[in-house]
């Protein structure tokens, strides 16, 4: 391959360099040599690309980049995403359906390029992985244990920084039209009071997005207050337990300390009951949990519109349509 001293070093991705293949792809500074027939069978975009006559290599003309006599096809994608996308195609064990373990950045890369290059089975598989993380039903959202998700769930976060990873997810979801993934992705970002600091240079937000997120964060704080108004209704009218009175007093102190110190604004979180389990009488606990859940459901119903998105019913309908089209 002809090159000049000013060009960056080009590397071959060994596991995706098949000597008997004739299609050579380049993404950024990475080269992949793959079988065109297999790629064409999976992707209608590559099938059309390969069917189009390729330019004839011309020695020393500088017009076409060549390797081993084959013209190099340039892809305007990130090398890391092309690598995981091609691995998913050429290694059947690399990107298995849920709940097989998979790294989060792999899911995002495969989803984006499977959509771009029309590999429907991989696109649907990637969406299935994300469906387990970004729910459209409140009961499923409550069942998700984010503490366990960081270390034990089948989707592994590469950096361990969920806020940054979720920012990558919403960018990809916007690109592929998977809008139903966005409400919970957005929510898990803005519930962190310092999300702009956490994102830093890792994710660019437009001024409009930044304004939208900050406005949503204020609404999260108001919703947090609303979901804990049940504290004012305790003890229940038929309660005469001194233990309930002590627990309720402690609860008010905890909420006060939270407002002073806590960095999270999480109206959909269950943490408030961590200090009341087993300490309230049945009547007080039933009243508290019922009012808390009812206020959470009200907030959940408004969550998409908080970010300028369609309603949950519309998003669920969109999800069904996309899933059916890719099935």
From TrEMBL:
Residues 19-98 form the BTB domain. Signal peptide: none annotated. Gene3D superfamilies: Potassium Channel Kv1.1, Chain A. CDD domains: BTB_POZ_ZBTB_KLHL-like. It holds the Pfam family BTB. It comes from the Eukaryota. This is BTB domain-containing protein. It comes from Favolaschia claudopus.
């Amino acid at each position: 391959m002809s090159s000049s001293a000013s060009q960056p070093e080009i590397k071959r991705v060994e596991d995706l360099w098949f000597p008997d293949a004739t299609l050579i792809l380049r993404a950024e500074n990475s080269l992949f040599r793959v079988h065109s027939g297999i790629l064409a069978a999976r992707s209608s975009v590559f099938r059309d690309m390969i069917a189009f006559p390729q330019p004839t290599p011309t020695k020393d003309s500088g017009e076409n980049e060549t390797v081993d006599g084959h013209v190099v096809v340039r892809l305007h994608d990130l090398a890391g995403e092309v690598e995981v996308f091609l691995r998913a195609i050429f290694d059947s064990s690399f990107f298995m359906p849920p709940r097989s373990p998979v790294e989060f950045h792999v899911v995002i890369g495969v989803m984006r390029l499977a959509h771009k290059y029309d590999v429907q089975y991989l696109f649907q598989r990637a969406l299935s992985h994300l469906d387990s993380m970004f729910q459209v039903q409140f009961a499923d959202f409550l069942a998700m244990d984010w503490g366990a998700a960081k270390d034990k769930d089948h989707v592994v976060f590469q950096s361990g920084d969920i806020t940054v990873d979720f920012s990558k997810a919403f960018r990809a979801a916007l690109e592929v039209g998977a809008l139903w993934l966005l409400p919970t992705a957005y929510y898990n970002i803005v519930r962190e009071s310092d999300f702009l600091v956490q994102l830093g240079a890792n994710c660019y937000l437009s001024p409009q997005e930044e304004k939208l997120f900050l406005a949503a964060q204020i609404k999260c704080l108001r919703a947090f207050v609303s979901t804990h108004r049940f504290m004012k209704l305790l003890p229940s009218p038929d309660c005469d337990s001194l233990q309930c009175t002590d627990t309720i007093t402690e609860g008010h102190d905890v909420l006060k300390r939270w407002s002073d110190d806590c960095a999270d604004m999480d109206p959909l979180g269950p943490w408030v009951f961590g200090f009341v389990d087993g300490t309230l009488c049945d009547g007080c606990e039933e009243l508290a949990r019922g009012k808390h859940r009812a206020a959470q459901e009200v907030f959940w119903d408004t969550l998409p519109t908080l970010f300028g998105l369609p309603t949950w019913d519309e998003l669920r309908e969109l999800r069904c349509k996309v899933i059916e089209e890719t099935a």
